[in-house]
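OP here, attaching both records as promised.
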Amino acid sequence: MPEIGKTNSAEQNMTSRISALLFLICSSLSFVIALSGCWEVDEGAKVNRDSLKAARDSANARTKDTVVRTEFEGLYNYEISGSTFRDCRHPDSVYIVIDASGKLKSQFEKVFPSSNVYGSIVAKVKGILVPTVEQKFKDKYPKTIKVTEVIQVDKKNFNNTCVPYDFWVFGNEPNWTLQISRKEGIIDLQDLAGNKNYSFFWNEPKSDSGAIIYSSFNTIRKYAIDIKIKKEKCSDTMSDTEYEYSVTAEITGGKKFKGCAIKGK
């Protein structure tokens, strides 16, 4: 028969071990709960930080959008019924023009002596954008640019145009250039030797035996153009520059032009 003192001692030891184990378990659970609480606080703080950042970014974006521009660069076309300005910063945006400076028309006519509804010049101007007032322009041109100062005007070429083009053609004997641009919607041939300009609306090209064919008709001037572009080495007679495309163009009446082309991007 076991001694009563020894039995009580063993039971006490067992009770102590269980108590210690329970204390350890409770402490561990408390740590996990506390850690979980901290994690939730951290996650909440992170969400708050992200929300604040998004709000600041949104505010900054709105500020940038509402900053009033005072300088513009674009393609200006003079037309008696309503001149237009295609914004280089936003090439799909075209504005009707109020020329308070009174200088754009004369600058345009230096490049295009006769009326040209298709041609344009590169113009850098000061001014402001305002809602279009005239009812006949509102739908097509909801914004008007009021030009207060002309900073610089240049003849448009393949280096300074801000609107994508299909091809830009150069030729000698006679000296001529040709711009084909789907984005601008034009085919514009300048006979520099004869001081004449032939302009047309852009039409979808066709393919013929590997050549690209553009054709158009000017309903006002009553003349047509046919252009054939081939991918083959080409060089002009004035320099050693070599191009990837050769071009022939013919205007109604049999006037023919030959040259080389740069393909647009």
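Record two, same layout:
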Amino acid sequence: MGPRAIISIIVSLLVVILISSSVFVVNETERAILLRFGEVVKSDIAPGIHFKTPFVEKERKFDARLLTVDARPERFLTAGKKYLVVDAFIKWRIHDVLAFYKATNGDNMRAASLLSRLTNDGLRAEFAVRTVQEVVSGERDKLMADITKILNVQAQNQFGIEVVDVRIKGIDLPDDLRNNVYRRMSAEREREARELRSQGKELAEGIRADADRQKTVIEANAYRDAEVIRGEGDAIAASTYAKAFNKDPEFYAFTRSLKAYEDSFSGKGDILLLKPDSDFFRYLKNSKGR
């Protein structure tokens, strides 16, 4: 390869390097500025292909999409002198590229820190004029709308940032107050449980006493009815026996004597001392009892 060819290759490489150093591309999701020796010469460059002076000018690109800052939970004092731990997040994007670059040097971490500080100051001011009930449920939507509006104006003026939304993820009590609240709630629940148990025992005793009373009444009524039925049955039986025996008194006396004999001589060791002419032997001597 001759010297002319080598020179041609070197010149071609220099041209390629010069062209590549002169052209830069800005995507649709980006915002860019152009610096010359660290000084901004062009801001808010539109998406597309752009040219710059090689080795003299330098582009800086920033994410133009909607970004999220997850703020650190902070303690805020309400109008009722109650501390609350608030966990919030901020949705933001670049509004003015030049102001954003001057305020943050194009560092998103720096922007997040500034937004978090600004948001905490705004929340502290809003919580200071509201009660716990208002910030938790009563005026929460209005609070978020007011905070977003105020922060958007401040962030645009100071940092070139548009605050799209501010939302509270959670509102909690500090650990010491939360433990006291939990203990108070536990004591209250224990008191209610004791009251319910005592009421249940009272109702149980009343139900048990009523059941015992009903049991006694039912048994008494049943015993009365049984005695009445038994008396009526005995009366009917006695009447039946009387009618039957009146038809043949001699036969009745005979069967009574047989029953007496059976009962008297059923045991092996039974001894009877009777006179021979006793009525007990009446039917042993004569079948007709004479």
